[in-house]
Amino acid sequence: MEWEPRTREKFKQIISKMPVFHRRIAEEAVSLKAEENAAARKAPLVQEEDIVCAFFSDVPLPFYSMMIRLLEQNGLDYAKYGFPKTGNSKT
């Protein structure tokens, strides 16, 4: 599936700031989930909403605070998509 160019760039920036030993796994898992999210919305492109939802659904709880920090540092406003759903839980 095609990605919105700006969304792809933000995603790459976030992945590049993760610890090296987590990058490949995170990139694969979140990419796949983001594409599934876009397909579920019947969208022609993966957009910011899709990667934000993917990060919140696929990032393990021990890495939650790092994920939040990386999303914020890269200008992804997760709150406008309804995250976090409750307190410190992932969804």
Report on this model:
The protein has one domain. It starts with a helix and ends in an 18-residue tail after the last helix. The protein is mainly α and 91 residues long. It has helices spanning 5-16, 20-40, 48-58, 64-73.
Q: Judging from the principal axes of the Cα atoms, what is the shape?
A: globular
* Strand tally: 0
What are the low-pLDDT stretches, counting only 5+ consecutive residues below 50?
87-91
| Percent of sequence in beta strands | under 5%
Span between termini: 25 Å
Mean pLDDT: 91
**Overall structural domain count:** 1
Helical stretch count?
4
Our Rg estimate from Cα atoms comes to 12 Å
Which structural category do the helix and sheet elements fall into? mainly alpha
Main pleated sheet: none
> Residue share in helices?
55-70%
String of helices and strands: HHHH
Keyphrases for this structure?
single chain, 91 residues, mainly alpha, 4 helices
Task: Indicate the topology.
Blueprint: H1 5-16, H2 20-40, H3 48-58, H4 64-73
Helix pairs in contact: 2-3
Short overview:
The protein has helices at residues 5-16, 20-40, 48-58, 64-73.
